[in-house]
Fold Carbamoyl phosphate synthase arginine-specific large chain.
Amino acid sequence: MNGYKEIGSTEKPTCAKLVLEDGTVFHGYSFGAKKSVSGEAVFQTGMVGYPEALTDPSYRGQILCFTYPLIGNYGVPSEKEVDHNGIPLYFESYEIHTAGVVVSSFTEKYSHWQAEDSFDVWLKRNNVSGIYDIDTRQLTQIIREKGTMLAKIVVDSEPSFYDPNHTNLVAQVSIKEPTIYRPLGNPLYHILMVDCGIKYNQIRCFLNRQAQVTLVPWDFDFSSPEALHHIDGIFLSNGPGDPSMCKVTINHIKNILRLAEENPNSRIIPLFGICLGHQLLSLAAGFETFKMKYGNRGHNVPCLELTSGHCYITSQNHGYAVDTNNKKIPHWQPLYVNLNDQTNEGICNDRYPFFSVQFHPEASAGPHDTEFLFDLFLNIVQTNKTAISSSKCVSAWDMFSNYKKPKIPHSLQDDVGIRKVLVLGSGGLSIGQAGEFDYSGTQALKALKEEGIKTVLVNPNIATVQTSRGMADKVYFLPINPESVAKVIRNERPDGILVTFGGQTALNCGIKLYQSGIFHEYGVRVLGTPIETILDTEDRERFNFRLSEIGEPFAHSVACSSLDAALKAAKEIGYPVILRAAFALGGLGSGFANDAEELTNLALRAFSTSDQVLIEKSMKGWKEIEYEVVRDAYDHCITVCNMENFDPLGIHTGESIVVAPSQTLNDFEYHMLRDSAIRTIRHLGVVGECNIQFALNPNSRQYCIIEVNARLSRSSALASKATGYPLAFVAAKLALGIPLTKIRNSITQSTTACFEPSLDYIVVKMPRWDLKKFTRVSKLLGSSMKSVGEVMAIGRNFCEAIQKAIRCVKENYIFGLDSTVVSYSIEEMLNPTDERIFAIANGLACGISVEKIHQLTHIDRWFLYHLESIILLEKHIQDLALNGQPLQEPDLWYAKSLGMSDKHIAKCIGETELVIRSLRMQLQVKPLVKRIDTVAAEFPAVTNYLYTTYVNGRGYNLNKQSQKNDVEFDKEGIIVLGSGAYRIGSSVEFDWCAVSAVRTLRNQHIYSIMVNHNPETVSTDYDECDRLYFEELSLERVLDIYELEKATGVIVSMGGQIPNNIAMQLHRQHVRILGTTPEMIDGAENRYKFSRMLDRLQVDQPEWKELTSLEDAKAFCIKVGYPCLVRPSYVLSGAAMNVAHKPEDLESYLTEAAKVSLDSPVVISKFILEAKEIEVDAVANRGELIMHVITEHVENAGVHSGDATLILPPQDLDEITVRKVEEATVKVANALNVTGPMNIQFIAKNNEIKVIECNLRASRSFPFVSKTLGIDLAKMATKASNYDDINVLFVCFDNVCG
């Protein structure tokens, strides 16, 4: 919600404001109970668990800010469902304890099978006030810098500030009379629990372990002989406020401690405290407590256990801490320490069975990693049951010292040191294995270099960044196969090898080398995940067996090695089934079969690429959830990112829209799957990074593990970019045996890498398909990948992110979730294609209900509700225009916060994009710049990994404040535009060019700013440039960034066709384009202008004509004779470029060309048969060639240059032909006044040459010619673009290979 309750709603939002005691005012809107409240403002960084958080008594009297921007997605479960003791099943106490709630936005239309009410309704029923449309990130930063402070939510009358820390809050929340809770079955223990504000899950944890609980009030004298007589242990609960307020409880604890010291014959009752209970025990022991600056409240806090050296991820909620540094108390030892802020997290007695922890092992909300402490405490209780005196008791310290101590792996104990490592790349890009492995391999090489290790890389892909000079110490451009790699091993004698950074190709090669004995023969250690573990995950039968060992669920399946076996298995399991191929990439060979005929077809294809298939029961329609998991050799195990597929199971995750973090899982489901992921990865023995995929029943807690990729995967790059956590970099260090706790968080530089990122934004990944390039190819999406690339979009709500993603994929030909692109049909809903989301939009616009679309597609209602809100907004804006009403500031803010582009808004009201932009500037509706920092602003970040958002921006205008961006704009750097999504014709080679450009700028001490939205690339690695904007490559967004950054120029020549396409538009808005002028770029891209120029220069070209009408085109073709070539303007890789052999072809191709060429002309030219094609890659300065390279195509003209085989130097060109090519290149470069890169393509026949086309940008072949010659043309072109003085340029050229 963002200032509208809902489009079409008659209910007007109620204005409210959040006032801090330092005078800061945030303007927003009221939800929940519409009343003013005051309390202490705190923030919480958890991404799930809002019902649990608000009912946690520790938040008593506080105004809680949720840093995650969308709250209420899964609604609120029933308050009436209770267990056999009457304890509510889904809440942590009997009421909401927070004074108020602050959110960026909340969801009214929730979606979850357990939900009974919306978040808003629940707050109203509990009379709790909330405020939304607040920039919660900015609020978090204020609290972080200034500390927790008093605050008030003002709706009606303004209340006074209230400090809850001056009140005994424990007395308010504690029970008044003792209560007994009994487990199911006979109790094994009797635990007395002191209620200082207890969370119900602490009671549940004891009941689940067959302990009977007697819960007593905070001031109950549990030290009296009567109280101690029948109990086995004492538990001190969490609670709110200042621990010094609980002097009565502290005195009772002192009595327990004194009894142990002074009466050696007395029976000692073990004692365990949590959170406030930890502080109370510490005060009783003689330590002191202090109020923290802003406390620890989140689900991802790393705590190091000092007895074992093991680190655990913990859930926390406290504003006070124990000081164990300034005072040493006999027999009391620090037990845990916070690895982020180094505060104490636990104490333990080395004589008696007493200990406590600051964090919440019972979690709820949060991870369950330390729930074993309840087992340990009950072990202590059981061990000491027979101790009749204090002298016979077993201390807590002794129990900790011998409990679950991780073992150092034998391979690391005998480590002789790794000095040289062989890294296997992924080879040529393919569907399912693209540029993400260039990113992964590059990260690995950086990590190894940082550790002083020599690296040898095997990768034949010359277009990659990892094969660039300076990345690896030595590069072999050889195939990734056992024979080639074995030769390298014999020659280089590496100490270790990394096989998990090059996709399935490297993995399969590594497995074959392992099985052949090559590694053993030459003493090469497989670093990271063992090969046997990889085989466990790749072989489906072995994988299922390993899962069964730990009781993890998997789909009923049978491994088969023949068609007959597959058909037999399917008959036993029952149709529908899914067939999966072993050792396959991108779901290759997999698919769903409804009958034997479909299965036969699938199996025959699968057995052509794999010798084993798995037939398993179909769970089509279930949710698909992924976790990226990191584990080191010392058994530290964390989940870095969890993701939810927009599409249900049945569509390969590479084909699906993916959202991070998950949006529709509640706390229990999130951590249930997290627990399963960690348990599975530990059992398998993965060391490094891996991906695990789950199928989750949308109507229950039933789940199955689909698969584990025990290597860096496509999802790994996405997760790294989505969270800011460099998975490949960390995985490479873990492979060397470095503990996770010894690696720093590279973004904050102050916290450990042994943590789980908190996001305060939403990421949407959307695949890109190029299916239109192929005839007779099915557009249906299924379990096998067809997409060739993907984009990632970041926003502060789902609508903003999904609309950005759509524009990035469609390169702004489509303006967002446009309801007019594809017509709705039931067929499209049941059998999805690459354009189903637009069919859904059309259906919603036509009145098809969310429920109907959900039933047909199984897409979660939550996602559909948000798509519906965009469609309703679109209609609302159209209605404004129809009624002659102008767009007001609130309309614009709302439209922009739901992700609508200026073009989209303009289309709705019949205006132009620039008119909307002008209106926005006039009304000060401008985007905010936010940073990705892995910690939701809890700690300062030192990197500049950025995105833009309009969410929560309006409040600054209302308050007459300047907009609060996360960065200052005072560098005036140069912007480099990246290549966007990989697609046919634009792939990793343009990323190499963009990376070369930003590295050149940095080497020249020029502030570099990269704009790109492709998560697979090295250019979107935040340490490659001074500022990275993960953003759209559109006129609107580039203008926003250019104006915000006060940039001195923009380089459009390194990212392929997309940046070139907006060069002229940027120029018209007074953006300084570096290098060749936009007029000249247009002169080359516009087929008509370019052909006219060649005529003027008397440079030969095939006969041509501009399309004016179909009849004229047909007449031209008859005149020159078929075949003829149809050539649209401003396109990449020959998009819609076709050879027409007859009039029927011509009409079809002209229609297609007109669609992609939009406002630019389509030209028809004579196609010359049996001609040779020649390319020239060159760099020029003000029309003068600095360097040129001629390459020759093996195939005759007619094979696109991207599909052709290139030879350098040319082998079959006559000297006369070469001279003519050079002369023509000089003429064209001079006429277009080229500054920077250029590529010209010629055809030659009988020593006559003709120009086909010229691109005034880097080409696909730039990396090829650069690495072949050892001269970086992209670097040279970048320098040419930034130097006006050619003499200075030639000085730079002397060192261009450096």
Observations:
- The CA atoms of residues 722 and 763 lie 6 Å apart.
